[in-house]
C-alpha cells in the first residue's frame, strides 16, 4: 500500500504519454498520405529558420502587442516545464521536491522563484489574450470560420493555462516546509496567508491535490493538443524546417508537365509510337490538387501546424475587401479534411474507402480560390512558415488543367496567349510598334 | 536583337518589354520613358521585338502550368539562341518569372528590375539628374508584390526616388506589409469575386492617407490599378500615378 501513489502515478504517466504517442503516430501516418517532398537541400538555411522563426519567434513580433504577450507565454511554457521534470521524479520515486535536496538552496530557490514570476506573467498574458478574443473583439478572431468549435477551442486552451498556473502557485503556497525555507517563494509567500487558518493536515491535503491536479492537468493538456488547433507548440519546429527556402515569388514548375512539354517540342518524337512491350503501366499524373492526398507532405504538416491566429487572413487583400477567401480557412479546411480521411482509414482497417467527398467543393469552393491575388501577404505574415498560397495554387491547377474550369475571362486571356503570345488579342507582329508611336 | 546578332555584337543588356509594355497604351509610355533613360545613359541595349512572347507568368498564376511551360520553353529557346546573359524589365511579374521560374526549365539569366538598373546606372555615374522637377513634391511609393515580398527588393525603388529630391512619404502598409493593388494572380484579366470593395480602391485609400501629389509605381499593372483607384476617388486632377521610369525620365 505504501507504494500505491507511485504506482498510480506511473500508470497515469504511461497512459498519458502512451495515448499521446499513439495519436502522434496517427498524425504522422496522415501526413504521409501526401506526396513526398525532397527537403535535403539548404540544411543550414533550414536550421537557421528553425532557430530564428520557431525558437526565436522572430515573426511573432511583427505584431508587437500579441507578439510580446506570446513570447511571455512561450518562455513561461518552456521554463516552467522544467518543474515538470521534478514532479515526474518525485512521482515515480515518492520523493518530495527532489530538487531542493540535490541542488544548493540558493539555486533551487532561484529556479522556483523564476518559475513563480513567469507563472504570474503567463497569467497576465493569458488574461489579456482572453480579453482580446472575447471582450475587445479583435477583428481576426471574428471571421466566420472562427464560429463554434474553433472559438471554444481557443478559449479552452486559455482556461487550461490559467488552471495550470494557479495550481502551481497554490501548490507552492500550501507547502509549509517550502514556505519555511523561504527561498524561491517570491510570489507564493503572498498567497500563503490566504490559507493561514487551515490546519497542517488540511494544508497538506490542498498541497497534494494541487500537485496531483497539476500533473494530471499537464497530461490532459498534452493529449488535448491533438484534438485542438494547438499542435503548433510542437509542430512549429519541423514546420519551419520544412518551410520554403526559396524567394516567395518562386512557384514550383510541375515536372510531369515539363515532360509533356519537352515531348511536344521534340521534333523526333513519334506521337503514334506504341509503348514498349515491357513498359510498366504508368498511372497518368494528376495535375494539381483536388483532395488532401494530392497535396505535399509539407502542405499537410502546414495544416496541422496552423494555430488559427488569423494573421494571414487579416493581411489578405481579398479578405479585407469582403471576399470569401480566407487563407486561415484554407488551412483549417485542409486539416479537417485530412482528419476526416484519417478517421475513414481507421474505420476501414487501414484503407481509405471513397466517401464521395473531397477538399475541393466540399470544403473549399472555387470562388475562394479565384479570389486570390497570389500577393504572398499570407505567407509573409505566418509566424510559423505556413503557405496557404501553395495550396490555393495547386487547387487552381486542378481546376484549370483537369477540369478546364477557369472563369471565362481567364479562358479568353489564355487563348490569346496561346494564339498570339499576349494576354490580349493583338498581333505578334505589332509587338514593337511602340517604338515608332 | 536580330540586328545585333547579324553584326556579331552582344548588347550590354536585353530589355524585356513584356506584354503590357508592348501593347497597353499606358504601359507603353513607361516603356518609352525607360528607353529614354537607357539612351540618356548611353546603354547599349536590345529588345527581342517581334520575337518576344508572353512569359507565361499570368497563365501560371491562373493555374495553367502547361501554357506557362510552353511559353517559357519557347522564350528560353530564343534567349539562349542569342546567348543572352543579362535581362532588365519594367514588369515585376516578368522579372520574378524570368528570374525564379525559368532556370528550372533551362533559362539561366541575370535578371533585374528596371528600378534596380536605374540605381545601378546612377551609382556608376552614368545617369545623373540635373532638373529639379520633383523637388519637394510628396511622393508615395506602392510596393509591387512581385518585386517586394516575392523578391525582397524594397530599397532600390526608394533609393532612386530619393535622387529626385522629392519628399518620400510611406503608407501605413509598406514594404513587406504592403497591400496588393488587386491585379496579381491573373485578377487583372477577370472581374473580382463578390465582396464589399475593390482591392485597388482600398489600396488607393492607403495612398491618399499620405496626402501625396504623386503615387509612384514600379509595375504596369499596379499603375493601371492605382490610376483607376484615383479616378474612382475623383482625385485625378490633384494626384498623378507614375512609374519610377517616367519620374526619372522627366526629372
From TrEMBL, chain A:
All copies of domain 4Fe-4S ferredoxin-type, residue ranges: 297-328
Regions that span the bilayer: 6-24, 68-89, 109-131, 156-174, 209-227
Keyword tags: 4Fe-4S, Iron, Iron-sulfur, Membrane, Metal-binding, Oxidoreductase, Transmembrane, Transmembrane helix
Statement: the UniProt record of this protein carries the keyword Metal-binding: yes
Cell cycle as UniProt keyword: no
GO terms, molecular function: 4 iron, 4 sulfur cluster binding; metal ion binding; oxidoreductase activity
Cellular component terms per the entry's GO annotation: plasma membrane
Name of the molecule in the record: 4Fe-4S dicluster protein
Species for this entry: Winogradskyella epiphytica
Organism taxonomic ancestry: Bacteria, Pseudomonadati, Bacteroidota, Flavobacteriia, Flavobacteriales
TrEMBL record, chain B:
GO cellular component, as recorded: plasma membrane
Keyword vocabulary terms for this entry: 4Fe-4S, Iron, Iron-sulfur, Metal-binding, Oxidoreductase
Record flagged with keyword Zinc: no
Entry superkingdom: Bacteria
Stretches assigned to the Cysteine-rich domain: 23-93, 139-226
Family annotation (InterPro entries): Cys_rich_dom (IPR004017), HdrC_iron-sulfur_subunit (IPR051460)
Molecular function (Gene Ontology), one example: oxidoreductase activity
Descriptive protein name: Cysteine-rich domain-containing protein
